[in-house]
Amino acid sequence: MIRIPSIARPFILALLAPSSYNVESADAPIVVPFLLALTAVLLFGLTMGHGISVTASAALVTAGILWVVLSAVLVVSASILDLKLSWINGARIISLASLPLLLRLIVGGIVAAITALSPFLVTCSPILFWKQAPAWAARLDVFELWAIGLLAILLHRCKGCGVQRAIFVSLIVWLVGFALIEVIRYL
User: Fold this and answer.
1) Mean pLDDT over residues 40-59, rounded?
2) Is the pLDDT score of 116 beyond 90?
3) Burial annotation 91-129 (CB, 10 A radius, 16+ → b, else e)
4) Has residue 118 got a pLDDT over 70?
């Protein structure tokens, strides 16, 4: 039997079996390990990227601000829909739902080490797998879709949160995140 370290258990469970994960249990720290992993992956990507004009401090501050804003959007939008979501549970859910995006950054860092591409430009569009996909599918990313779905599943696991509310709150968080990323790209 494979023994999983207790600190990794919630991350693996959230990725592989999110519908069985208990969001409201504080069995292991989630937020700090996620933020440390995000920092390490961003630094790895910046180190491997060629010709990146973003400083490490700017990337880390931007990622931290995005994480805080999306955590706040999650908690506030859940509150507006009359869902009881504490700030710590909101931070846990955002951290766990962001794991696929963290995996995309790892893939981006590896691709950047092999090629001259920026690690932040790597995408995994359904067009890579589906040759007759419509043109709009090129804008989608499998990791982003996974993160949105994971967010909805984890929200649905909270007390009193139905499927429709979970999907609605997930879409609000995604739209705000998408808008913030687009604004940051043009700065």
Assistant:
1) 77
2) no
3) bbbbbbbbbbbbbbbbbbbebbeeeebbbbebbbeebee
4) yes
Helix or strand run (H / E) with residue 130: none
Half-sphere exposure of 179 (CA within 13 A, CB side): 9
Task: Please list, residue by residue across 15-24, b when 16 or more beta carbons sit within 10 angstroms of its beta carbon and e when fewer do.
Answer: eeebeebebe
8 Å CB contact between 105 and 112? no
pTM, to two decimals: 0.84
CA distance 103 to 15: 11
For 154, counting Cβ atoms within 10 Å of its Cβ (0-12 exposed, 13-18 middle, 19+ buried), the class is: buried
Distance CA 139, CA 55 (A): 27
For 61-103, how does the pLDDT look when each residue is reduced to its tens digit (9 = 90+)?
888 899 999 999 999 999 998 888 889 889 989 999 999 989 9
The owner of tokens 């494979």 is 2
CB-CB contact of 61 with 156 (8 Å) = no
Identity of the residue numbered 184: I
